[in-house]
Amino acid sequence: MTLSTRPLRSIRSFVRRESRITPAQVRALGELWPRYGIPEGQAPLDWRSVFGRRAQVVLEIGFGNGEALAAAAAAHPEINYLGIEVHRPGAGSLLRRIETGAMENVRLMLGDAKEILEQRVADGSLTGVHLFFPDPWPKKRHHKRRLVQPDFAALVTRKLAPGGYFHLATDWPAYAEHMEVVLSATPGLADVSRTAQGQALIAERLSTRFEQRGRKLGHEVRDLVYSRKA
């Protein structure tokens, strides 16, 4: 028997579904990506070069159409925001929001957030990481695809600066419980969801149209905030 020498495929937490992209999104990608987008590559990111200034950096993973990220960036112009998404239509939508709001503190990347964190983000360089409403992969046989796993939690912890935070939200109770179990067992993280810091972050998070639809269907939204211990 001949064994394959090809590397094993890693389990992805997402599926690339290229939904319909509008002419406005195509225009934004074409005209605005060169200014606000970060090209693919493997070189470590230098935040001062990326944003043109020194400031705290907050990462949002899977920003969807960019509602929450744009709102946070508008509310905190003193903070630099990096959004990572796999879907081009969502990136096009966020670019339009950046243009409308004349925001200079937002940059975008297209790709696998886990790979980007591993290869391009320096340890201890992030003030915060946002993960809002990731795919819950509700079927038991798909649970291995969930992004929040012990290795991912350890990776995020390593990239956070001491005192930095990891803010998650989901409207799937079983996934919220899974997140809590994983994060509570991650060395170096502390649950601050009920502290003043955690409550302030939760109160500030924008309620998106996606979330509002879920609430109308009776879905309970859970926010979790963990902090990297000093």
From TrEMBL:
GO terms for molecular function: tRNA (guanine(46)-N7)-methyltransferase activity. Pathway: tRNA modification; N(7)-methylguanine-tRNA biosynthesis. Catalyzes the formation of N(7)-methylguanine at position 46 (m7G46) in tRNA. PANTHER family: 3-DEOXY-D-MANNO-OCTULOSONIC-ACID TRANSFERASE/TRNA GUANINE-N 7 - -METHYLTRANSFERASE, PENTACOTRIPEPTIDE-REPEAT REGION OF PRORP DOMAIN-CONTAINING PROTEIN. Keywords: Methyltransferase, S-adenosyl-L-methionine, Transferase, tRNA processing. Substrate binds at residues 139, 171, 208-211. It comes from the Bacteria. Belongs to the class I-like SAM-binding methyltransferase superfamily. TrmB family. InterPro entries: SAM-dependent_MTases_sf, tRNA_(Gua-N-7)_MeTrfase_Trmb, tRNA_methyltr_TrmB_bact. This is tRNA (guanine-N(7)-)-methyltransferase. The lineage of its organism: Bacteria, Pseudomonadati, Pseudomonadota, Gammaproteobacteria, Acidiferrobacterales. It catalyses: guanosine(46) in tRNA + S-adenosyl-L-methionine = N(7)-methylguanosine(46) in tRNA + S-adenosyl-L-homocysteine. It is an enzyme of class 2 (transferase). S-adenosyl-L-methionine binds at residues 60, 85, 112, 135. The keyword Transferase applies.
